[in-house]
Amino acid sequence: MSEPAASPAGLAPALPWSGPAPSQPVLLKGLVSHWPVVQAARQSPVALAAYVKRFCQPEVVTLWRAPASAHGRFFYNERFDGFNFAAEHARLDEVLSQLVAGAGQPQADALYVGSTTVERVCPGFQGENDVSGLPQEALMSLWMGNRTRIAAHQDVPDNLACVAAGRRRFTLFAPEQLPNLYIGPLDFTPAGQPISLVDMTEPDLARYPRFAQAQQAAQVFELEAGDALFIPSLWWHQVEALDSVNLLLNYWWRSSPAFMDPPMAALLLALSSIRDLPPAQRQAWAAQFHHYVFADPPTRHAHIPAHALGLLGPLSPERVRPLRARLLQLLNR
Length: 333
Known about the structure:
The chain has 333 residues and is α+β, with helices and mostly antiparallel strands. It folds into 2 domains: 26-253, Cupin (Jelly Rolls, Sandwich), CATH 2.60.120.650; 263-331, no CATH class. It has 10 helices and 13 strands. The chain has helices at residues 36-43, 45-53, 92-101, 118-121, 125-128, 211-217, 263-273, 279-294, 297-300, 317-331; strands spanning 26-28, 60-66, 73-74, 86-91, 110-117, 139-145, 149-153, 158-165, 168-173, 219-223, 228-231, 236-241, 246-253. An 8-stranded antiparallel sheet has the order 1-11-8-13-6-5-2-4. Helix 1 (36-43) runs antiparallel to helix 2 (45-53). 29% of the residues are buried.
């Protein structure tokens, strides 16, 4: 846990670390408490909506709507051939008005707007509500809704989540907990990322017994408006919005050069080319991957002259370009 120093009004708060991002989650109490949007939210939902609407453009966003019977959980339907919510399109100011109007209705539909680029829908907002010291390519996104539950999932970028309105509970699991989280399909997902099938508010341990191990290793953080949480790349996280009007702003950034391909591409290709090989061949390819991908780089190819390393040397745009062309040639054979 870290307590950043308060920032004078008008100045962006800074992160309490420099250099590479931490490999563990970090709770940052009060990091953005002086943001104007946080101050407006502390007054009332009406004041919050009025502040955000100052920046709203007539751009539509994707709004997820689930019936009150879903209890805020956006998930698959009972037959597992679709989802328990519908996607609509609406302007952001219209969504804000719906949230304010439904704030006192206990049986209101669950509403959720996720991963919406702030600069597209609210240009100028980030100029008044920002964090300094982030990588230049960090992208600010907006997440808004009422009482909702988003199943545990993971993201490739590092993530700084800043609560602007309402309270949120994050339940985090280290990447090695993957076998205990009962992850669903890779290619049939609510929003692009595979999710845990466990209802973590009422886990069915008879159906998902290994989740008991994940529970013991879980890290739970409850954030109020003004708090922030750093979530490292590939950490699984469930997010619960606990109030009737919630707003979260987050920053995404990758800790890898832009010329590198998405790691998910390698996983999908391995599924199509390696997973169903005979066991002995799979083991042989596991050894190949360990040698060429996961072993310690300074020692694994020391026997090759540096000028002859080719693709085995440090990656660069010049080395990746022919590698990508060779891969396309193999796939299009």
